[in-house]
DNA sequence: GACATGCTTTTTACGAGTAAAACACCTGTT
DNA sequence: AACAGGTGTTTTACTCGTAAAAAGCATGTC
């Protein structure tokens, strides 16, 4: 069984600081590294379509919620700041992928929806993207994949709870 | 058992596109989300010391390698671009945390090392950072943590192999 | 020894994110 | 009706990352 990069890093730390509890690094370091590698590589089909991952997330959110959303709601769903969403919306709108409708009760708020073109784009790209991601992951067994999904889901619940109370 | 955010997203997709294979999203989505939450939250001790995560990575790399490194080597170790490293080195040097020594064979290359101050800083912060990370993770059992570390290590090996051949 | 080639590092120009302020608007109170 | 306070969105000023080009240097070949 080959060793991953983080294992070597942990060994170096043990030599420099014997006895240091590197347990958190073993998990968090690997998590971050996996995430970075996947984001770098797994966005290839998106980029071919001229979309960044954040833009894809906005379109995907509108698609899966299957109704109009306000910019603020999109920001919360995609875990982005309002300002970042404003910029993305401007570009997506300029490309004709989304459209805005003014609220008639409250003139501050806008209601976003996918244009036909936007919907076609996401519906065409999503299966490609998922298929590509599947090939990246098929080096590990299905059992392992499920175990990881489950374990990460558990971690996610803990973190969401922790950070909800930690960051407010 | 509470449900994590990604589970709800997967259900929405199933309603919009029944039968879509969302397996990759279950894993990759959770991975990215965990990574984002951890990075947002787990850097608190670093920020108190006035360090960003990338700066911390540079100092940590110099510390654990325990010898002089060239900027290029630091870039490879921290998975950053050369340009990004140049900027970080300039700031770390201005703060007196690292120093440069010119190579006398090849005048292009510089040899970086931690100053006493830099070494003291990283040695003081690292245990704090690890302890803080440990508290973030202690909501899941130790068995789970090990299982995740191991599974992510396996995934990392696969990705490193895949991307090494995919991206060059 | 001059030059083509390639390597290491830095610079430049630019795109994208953030925090904080600004802006526009609503709502409840007086 | 006026206004205080709150909310939704955008703007502003700034930081940081990147890709591509530039700068500087070494090395092998003719």
Largest pleated sheet of chain A: 2 strands, antiparallel
Count of helical regions of chain A: 8
Work out the radius of gyration of chain A.
20 Å
Measured by DSSP, the beta-strand proportion of chain A falls in 5-15%
- Structurally, the number of domains of chain A stands at 2
CATH class of the largest domain in chain A: Mainly Alpha
What are the secondary-structure elements of chain A, in order, as H or E? HHHHHHEEHH
Strand order of the largest sheet of chain A: 1-2
CATH-derived architecture of the largest domain in chain A: Orthogonal Bundle
The greatest interface between two protein chains, and residues involved on each side, is:
A-B, 70 and 69 residues
CATH topology of the largest domain in chain A: Arc Repressor Mutant, subunit A
CATH H level, superfamily name of the largest domain in chain A: Winged helix-like DNA-binding domain superfamily/Winged helix DNA-binding domain
Please bin the fraction of helical residues of chain A.
over 70%
Number of DSSP-assigned strands of chain A? 2
The quaternary state of the protein chains shown equals homodimer
Which structural category do the helix and sheet elements of chain A fall into? mainly alpha
Question: What overall geometry of chain A do the principal axes of the alpha carbons give?
Answer: elongated
End-to-end separation of chain A: 44 Å
The mean pLDDT of chain A is 92
Write structural notes for this entry.
Chain A is mainly alpha-helical and 168 residues long. Chain A has 2 domains: 42 residues, no CATH class; 92 residues, Arc Repressor Mutant, subunit A, CATH 1.10.10.10. The first copy, chain A, is 70% helix and 6% strand. A two-stranded antiparallel sheet of chain A has the order 1-2. In chain A, a hairpin with a 7-residue loop joins strand 1 and strand 2. In chain A, helix 4 crosses helix 7 and helix 5 crosses helix 6. The longest helix of chain A is centred in the last third of the chain and has 25 residues. The first copy, chain A, is elongated. The model of chain A has no long low-confidence stretch (mean pLDDT 92). At the A-B interface, helix 1, helix 2, helix 4, helix 7 and helix 8 of A face helix 1, helix 2, helix 4, helix 7 and helix 8 of B. Chain A binds a DNA duplex (30 and 30 nucleotides) through helix 6.
